[in-house]
Amino acid sequence: MPKLIDTHAHLNFNAFKNDVDKVVRQCLANDVWMINVGTKYETSQKAVELAQKYEKGVFAAIGLHPIHLDTGLVKIKNDTEEVEVHAAEEFFDYQKYEELAKSPKVVAIGEVGLDYYWRPKTTKKKELFKQKQKDLLTKQLDLAKELNLPVIFHCRMAYNDLVEILRKRRNINKYTPDELLIKGVVHCFAGSWQQAQRFLEMGFCLGFNGIIFKKIKDIDFEEVIRNTPLDRVLLETDCPYLAPPPTEGRNDPLTLKYIVERVAKIKNLSYEKVAEATTENAKKLFSISI
Ligand SMILES: [Zn+2]
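Above: query sequence and zinc ion SMILES. Below: predicted holo structure tokens.
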């Protein structure tokens, strides 16, 4: 059984193309399991292929990240650490992703959400750009609901809009039994405690990674982590990015222990308690049974 589960890794990215199997084997030998997360069709497919190579311990999430949707409005910087094909997707092909989700290794839809970091300068285009992202998100929430899968949310400079979209959906579904509502995690959470509460109220989990070691204006990670109930905390690395100190350079799932240590310290709990609880949370949300 796993000691830890990295709920947001990208071993499906280019950064690992020369030694991905070695890294996976090292993780599994250390009882660190993982979910590799897709950002567009190619990386989603890669995540599924990778998961299928291993009998246990490696899972996949599939989805179209908002910055990979070709909105035709903003030129998004290419990321060489992702897979080699850099073309953005012109539209979200629901059926293609639905087909990919047939693999039993797919445990979530993600990463999907809103990213307003890169945006057009004019107000009119800005609104159009946001609307395109919202439409894309809505389609993927429909897919998650149809497949009864949890969602891994990416959200950058857009927490208020994401809350609004999720709230509206819940209100429409007021009479839907709890177990049919969208479940999920806001990955790489870097908002205020006030924003955190709004996601927690709706039943979502928060995902913490190496970003919690950084100083970000107006964000008090200690306050957010201290106040978030332990049964809503998920841990992740977002590797190859965000290596937590003392590590540096290309990140990998084995650094998850530093996130556990930091969360344990802030919450004044033992390392074992945090490791056990967060692993349990991941197994529950993503229905990982073996
Ligand atoms: Zn990611």
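The chain has nine helices and eight strands.
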